[in-house]
Specification:
The protein has 329 residues and is an alpha/beta fold. It is built from four helices and 14 strands. It has two domains: 154 residues, GTP1/OBG domain (Spo0b-associated Gtp-binding Protein, Chain: A, Distorted Sandwich), CATH 2.70.210; 168 residues, Rossmann fold, CATH 3.40.50. The structure holds guanosine-5'-triphosphate and magnesium ion.
């Protein structure tokens, strides 16, 4: 679950064929061979790009071909080289051969470049084969095929946004609605025992990673409930989503609940409460209006962003995704 995966095919360009030709010029009897070489095929190069943070885009786009070399021509014209292509992948991606599982390259540094598939060499034209004993060679080479590889990409994810809240606040349900993660969901506290990550996509090319962690309760820093050991998973998140149940399914006062979690965060690491936070009022389909109003007022007074959502009806989910993305960029 902490790993994002993708399979891609890379195909380097084939080399162009060599050409068979002879000079034909007026007043030059028996002109020599003049067939040019084929151009080399283009290479496929993988490049680690700090702007990319997930492998999500490879779900839509997973075959990458470099350009083929042009064939040689008469008058000793060499064919044009095929164009190289660069495939940009996130820093931290491990690339393996899909069939053998062998590790090909670990992209640990930004701008790390690795030629993954070499273009085929262009074939020699007949001019190349002329010698003192054979002045009219009538053979030329075909270009060689470019390399083709099936690759498996693996990326260890770091979450951009972390979900915090009481048990049953609806954290796992939310992540299951906005990402492909499928954590266990149930109407009893502490359903989630292990942190889960999900990749949230916005449109075709934007995404962020969200972490679902076990619920917190008052005294978590003293070991109550499942404790706060899971908070280390969100220490590197840049945004916190603080989920507060405003439905009749919870009998807790929303403000009391909010403050309890905030103080547990601070107990764990005083910097956690300083992170940009969005207060997320959950289960709006079953909302108790007085709770919503109370939380709303509190957020306004404390200059906090608040969004109302329902993972059942989908209310507010797009707004939430966009807001998180804005805070991250
Ligand atoms: N009506 C309604 N119920 C919801 C909504 N979101 C979650 N629930 C229900 O609330 C209960 C708890 O949901 P979970 O997603 O498991 O809550 P959690 O915050 O992950 O809980 P823990 O893992 O125990 O911390 C489940 O019964 C869900 O079906 C919602 O938007 N509307
Ligand atoms: Mg859960």
């Amino acid at each position: 679950m902490f790993i994002d995966e993708a399979k891609i095919t890379v195909k380097a360009g084939d080399g162009g064929h060599g050409c068979i030709a002879f000079r034909r010029e007026k007043f030059v009897p028996r002109g020599g061979p003049s067939g040019g070489d084929g151009g080399d095929g283009g290479n496929v190069v993988l490049v680690a790009d700090p702007q990319e943070n997930t492998l999500l885009r490879f779900r839509y786009d997973h075959i990458f071909k470099a350009g083929r070399g042009s064939h040689g021509q008469g008058s000793n014209k060499t064919g044009k080289r095929g164009a190289d292509i660069e495939v940009r992948i996130p820093v931290g991606t491990l690339v393996c051969d899909e069939k053998t599982g062998e590790v090909i390259h670990d992209f640990t540094d930004p701008q790390d470049r690795f030629p993954i598939a070499a273009g085929g060499r262009g074939g020699h034209g007949n001019a190349h084969f002329a010698s003192s004993t054979n002045r009219t060679p009538s053979r030329a080479q075909d270009g060689l095929p470019g390399e083709e590889k099936q690759l498996k990409l693996e990326l260890k994810l770091l979450a951009d946004a972390g979900l915090v809240g009481y048990p049953n606040a609806g954290k796992s349900t939310l992540i299951s609605r906005i990402s492909a993660a499928r954590p266990k969901i149930a109407d009893y506290p502490f359903t989630t025992l292990e942190p889960q990550l999900g990749v949230v996509s916005i449109g075709m090319d934007k995404s962020f990673v969200v972490a679902d962690i076990p619920g917190l309760i008052e005294g978590a820093h003293l070991g109550h409930g499942l404790g706060i050991q899971f908070l280390r998973h969100i220490e590197r998140c840049r945004v916190l989503l603080h989920l507060v149940d405003v439905s009749g399914l919870s009998d807790e006062d929303p403000i009391v609940e909010y403050k309890a979690i905030r103080s547990e965060l601070a107990e764990h690491n005083p910097e956690l409460p300083l992170k940009p936070t969005i207060v997320v009022a959950t289960k709006m389909d079953a909302a108790v209006p007085s709770k919503v109003k109370k939380l709303q007022r509190w957020c306004r007074q404390n200059d906090l962003d608040m969004i109302r959502i329902s993972s059942v009806t989908g209310e507010g989910l797009e707004e939430l995704k966009n807001k998180v993305f804005l805070k991250l960029s």
